[in-house]
Amino acid sequence: MTEEKLARRRFLHGAALGAAGLAGIGSLGGAFEASTSLASSRDPEPGGAAKPVHQWAMVIDLRYCNGCKLCTAGCQAAHGLHADQTWIEVFTMRNAAGETYHMPRPCMMCEDPPCVQVCPVSANFRTAEGLTLVDQSRCIGTRICMNACPYQARYFNWSAPRPVPRQPFPQEPTWPVPQVEGTVGKCIFCAAMLPSGMLPECVTRCPMGVIYLGDLEADVATNGMGNTVTLSKFLAENDAVKFKESYGTHPRVFYIPGHGQDLESDTAGG
Amino acid sequence: MLTLEENVVAGRDDVVAAAMRPVVDTPSWWWPAVAVLGAVVALGVVAWAVQLADGLGVAGYNDRAFWAVYEADLVAFVGVSYGGAVVSAILRLTNATWRAPLTRIAEGTALVTLPIGMIFIIPHLGSPWRVWELVWPPYWNLSSPILWDFFAVSTYLLATAVFFYLPLVPDLPIARRWLAGRGGLRTRGCRALYKLLGGGWEGTESQRRLLHGSIGLVAIMVIPMAVSVHSVLSFAFASSSRSGYLETIFPVYFVVAALYSGVALVVLAVAAGRRLFHLEAFIHPRHLVRLGFVMVVFGAAYIYLTFTEYLVDGYSGTTDNAAWVRQILVGRYWVPFWFYFVAAGLVPIMVMAIRRTRNATGVIVASGLVVVAMWVKRLVIVIPPATEPLVRSPLAAAGIAGRWGSYHFTWVPISITLAATAAIPLLLLILFRFVPILPISEMEELAGDGEGAQGMPIRREGL
Of B77, B146, B228, B368, which has fewest CB within 10 angstroms of its CB? Predict the structure, then answer.
């Protein structure tokens, strides 16, 4: 898994150098170093600085989702989003038996996020704690990250954001509220709330206890009903799967199926 | 029958007079034409201002149609600039001497269309006021295909400008002498410009050798550069996991499309220049027919690539690929796709195949259809995969109802696209107010009237 991930990075960096060479741009050496050092300051590889305390993840227990969409409503209220900006979207799906079930889809917080690779101005980055965030003060709005994301989890600000009251956190990538017109936004796992021990909005809003916030480092996950589980055990015992695993993105969102559905063939396509 | 080469053996004075006519004469239609074209461009600027004020949403975009008309415009307008590379580089390197009277118009068309294509980066961006970040190295992410695009297109613009300028150098002193003694502010301005850009040209043997060598070198460099530009443009689409964009055929597909539409635009520009500036003595209808043959070769290659792409993706039967291939061939996109197939697929081949239509009129009509239909084809490439839902919910698929999927055309992108279209003839009219429309020295050398521009013996072997 790690091998694969590294191979992909190396391939992309190699390809980038090749393309730059083709374009015949001089003095690229320095620029490349600047670019990579920037990336590494935001995305330290294991073995670098002190090990981060958390590695955030999410578990979505599809057995109990009734499709009420209170997670979406809570998320949109908290982040001042428009109605079509469904950072966590609840899809109505159909399983092999023809029955419908509901599938909430937040950002997958990929370990190898394609959106980070394709941004020309490095506006997407991955934190040491495994969160992929958008710097909306830098995003120029090419929307190539929306093309790259296999989960259609990214939402552009096509018009001015909704007015929001005074916010508890500064307007930063960890709390991009209000959104910035002309830039891309997406689920942030409510990053600004996590350090103080608060759960993301969707987790606390879910009346069925479907969504768990997890920490791979502490091997624990908690839902909004106060249920706390041992993450690895919970995933193993319930045959958890990841969405579109074949895309090589290594999501940190785990689904627990319960309706006979096969996320890969139902939804991955391709 | 005269050969093309014999046809252009006119006296040198005739060539210079014809080349300089657009510079000194103002035909009665010139100002009205400029006013109308300028008004269309101005409307496009207004549309862009509205988009700036209200957000990209007014252009019909949404999260399920994140790329649409501006991205297709960017590909299409950069694409039509390829005609200059074909006529001037490929025909130069293959020693096709009949190209001579066409090169200045072809290179001028490339010179004006490439910046127009590049300008589509601006309305395409959500935050165009931050476009400077693309030239700010600390922000660069070298693994981004958009950044590769930016490098490639910028480099190509430089090459195109050089390629326009170099063959112009020996013409400038001739043009300056020809303008001597004429009054008027603009004439004096032109003479000053010619002195500035070509004042050092004396036509000595060493200068001549240097210039020919440089042109040959740039002609060789321009071809791989042109190939790389559209390949890299295609990477912005193809380097993703999205089915319909993830196509290894895309780089070739994009390059051939660009060459095809580029030659078609050169046909239109040459035909218009010939008629409007009375160049009938130098540009023969058979020039257009020959360009028609070049065009139809690219057209046939393009149909072949289209067939290959759709056959393989459709045949594979995988859910996502089958979905968009079906939508294009018999689904909601059938009208634009089959319009392409007839207008830029069948018609050009038929026009060149049938003796009765294989003439200047036939080629001009076919070229007009090709330019429009290849723009439509770019929409068919860009929009269907972007609007195809990636999470296969039955409801998501049912929610897409429009003729262009989730995308809905509004007056804003239509105005901006029309403005870019009008800007091509507008800028060409202005360009040839300042620059000789015929490559005087090149025509003399290739026509073989025994004397080069400065009385030097000419080299018949082309470069």
Answer: B368
| Largest Cα span, chain A | 60
* Angstrom distance (rounded) from CA A210 to CA A204: 10
Q: Is A172 helix (H, G, I), strand (E, B) or coil?
A: strand
Contact A118, A145 (CB under 8 A): yes
Q: Is residue B459 part of a domain?
A: no
Residues of B in contact with A65 (CB under 8 A): none
The alpha-carbon gap from B1 to the nearest alpha carbon of chain A, in Å, equals 47
What's the CA dihedral at A7, A13, A19, A20 to 10 degrees?
-160
Inside any domain, residue B386: yes
Distance CA B240, CA A120 (A): 14
Distance of alpha carbon A242 from the chain centroid: 13
CATH for A53-268 (3.30.1300.10, 3.40.50.2000, 3.30.70.270, 3.30.70.20): 3.30.70.20
Give the CATH number for residue B388.
1.20.1630.10
- The number of domains in chain B is 1
CA distance, residue B80 to nearest chain A CA (Å): 20
Nearest CB among B139, B151, B390 relative to A25 is that of B151
pLDDT at B57 over 70: yes
Size of interface A-B (CB pairs under 8 A): 201
Express each pLDDT in B218-266 by its tens digit. 999 999 999 999 999 999 999 999 999 999 999 999 999 999 999 999 9
Question: Domain spans of chain A?
Answer: 1-45, 53-268
Are B63 and A114 in contact (CB < 8 Å)? no
The tens place of each residue's pLDDT in chain A, 270 residues long, gives: 444 544 554 555 555 444 444 444 434 334 444 444 334 344 445 455 678 899 999 999 999 999 999 999 999 999 999 999 999 999 999 887 888 899 999 999 999 999 999 999 999 999 999 999 999 999 999 999 999 999 999 999 999 999 999 999 999 999 999 999 999 999 999 999 999 999 999 999 999 999 999 999 999 999 999 999 999 999 999 999 999 988 999 999 999 998 766 665 444 333
DSSP annotation string for A201-270: HHHHH-TT--EEEEETTTTEEEETTS-EEEHHHHHHHTT-B-TTGGGS---SEEEE--SS--HIIIII--
Residue from B400, B377, B376 nearest B387 by CA: B400
Measured in residues, chain B has a length of 463
This prediction has a pTM of 0.88
The closest CB to that of B55, out of A114, A159, A184, belongs to A159
Sign of the torsion angle spanned by Cα atoms B237, B241, B242, B243:
positive
Range of the domain at B375: 4-447
- Residue B326 inside a domain? The answer is yes
- Closest C-alpha among A24, A154, A132 to residue A81: A154
Radius of gyration of chain B, Cα coordinates, nearest whole angstrom? 23
What is the rounded distance in angstroms from the CA atom of residue A112 to the CA atom of residue B218?
A: 41
What pLDDT was estimated at residue B398? 67
* Test mutation, A9, A65, A143, chain B, max B CBs within 10 A: A143
Interface predicted TM-score (ipTM):
0.88
Contacts of B127 in chain A (CB under 8 A): 139-141, 180, 182-183
